[in-house]
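[STRUCTURE TOKENS]
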Amino acid sequence: MHPTVEGKAEKPSRKRYSETSHESFTLYSLGTNGGPLESGCSAHLLSDGTFKEIVSIDGGGHLSALAELIEKKLLTVDIDEQNFQFAGEGTPLNSIYAKAWLFSEQRIKTFLISHCHLDHIYACVINSAMFGPQNPRTIVGLEYVIDTLKKHIFNNQVWPALDKAGFINFKIINEATYTNITSTLSVLPFPVNHGSSFGHELKSSAFLIRNMLSDRYFVAFGDVEPDRVASDSLNIYIWRVCAELIAKKKLSHILIECSTPDISDALLFGHFCPRHLVDELCSLRSFVNELGESMDNVTVLITHLKSHPLEVIDPEVVIVEQLEALSKACSLPVKFKIVKRGQFYRFS
């Protein structure tokens, strides 16, 4: 597996990306779209520096996204075909599809699901019919996430209960302790708010990922509502934990949504826009400052941008401009990057 630079495949030296890589995390996005288009929805592949044991953070995209990125040469895969039986003689009819499937079979064993909105789960659900009992995937999440998947998705009505056939395993993770998700990575989940829908309060998740070898950390949010808007404050708890890690120089990257340019709170529906994201980051900064440190080493990776077919200005441009202007006004020293589908991000 090789990284890309500005959308072009780059073949790295074997030494740099060996099993002794000094980088604690590799992030590769299969989808950053927050809707309403059904393509390119939320799915981020996370691993340590070797990119061998991979966890999919959410599952809005998977096999078709892998195949598309392989075909566009934005993803170069090294896979072992010797142990796989193909139907019939010769090579598969669709070699790109076969490569995507083999890569998923060999490398991506776990889906870490933040919440059950369709744009975060639908590829994981549809692709589950291909997983099979010989190589099941594990779907991991907080208790309310797993309960919802069992009751409302894998219920033999919306989709077959493939856990009963051994195609998938469900694993509930506890917000009080770290749980191993690969041989090198563990996760500590946090419940977060995701607005309300017709009187029903929605919950999502944030995940604090630890590289157990390097003792470095990365935090990834699912959809999330600002504490200032929510009925109860939950983000503050993860910011307090993150502040200690930032102060110790153990956490440098935050993956978080910023779905739209600034709009009224009534139209947010449980999401961030620039003013709320900067406000939340200022809360984080206050905790870091209390520890006598700064946030000048923090990079905020922006995802889940929503689109509209009649827009004349790219929302990405507006969001970045607003984030940078707001952060400058309050002297917030973080760096903002829009996560690009099909590009690698490596960091410690």
